[in-house]
């Protein structure tokens, strides 16, 4: 019985992770871009170089 509960909980965590992985990555990228833009406002080329990494 405990195995079934653990299996269901693990599956639920996996589903939630797969649903939130992309939005979290996008938010992190936006945060990094905003920080770079604040520090280096005139360097658009750096923004493009960073996004290619």
Per the principal axes of the C-alpha atoms, what is the gross shape?
rod-shaped
The tally of strands reads 0
Low-confidence stretches: none
**Roughly what percent helix?**
over 70%
Helix tally?
2
Secondary-structure element order, as H and E? HH
Distance N terminus to C terminus?
46 Å
Strand percentage: under 5%
Largest sheet: none
Q: Averaged pLDDT, please?
A: 87
Judged by helices, strands and strand pairing, the structural class is: mainly alpha
Based on CA atoms alone, the radius of gyration comes out at 19 Å
Outline of the structure:
The chain contains 2 helices and no strands.
Structure description:
The protein is mainly α and 53 residues long. Helices cover 89% and strands 0% of the residues. It has helices at residues 2-39, 44-52. The model has no long low-confidence stretch (mean pLDDT 87).
Please render the helix and strand layout as text:
Blueprint: H1 2-39, H2 44-52
Notable characteristics:
2 helices
């Amino acid at each position: 019985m405990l195995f079934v509960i653990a299996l269901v909980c693990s599956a639920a965590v996996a589903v939630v992770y797969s649903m939130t992985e992309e939005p979290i990555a996008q938010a992190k990228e936006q945060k990094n871009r905003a920080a770079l833009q604040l520090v280096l406002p005139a360097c658009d080329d750096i923004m493009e170089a960073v996004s290619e990494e």
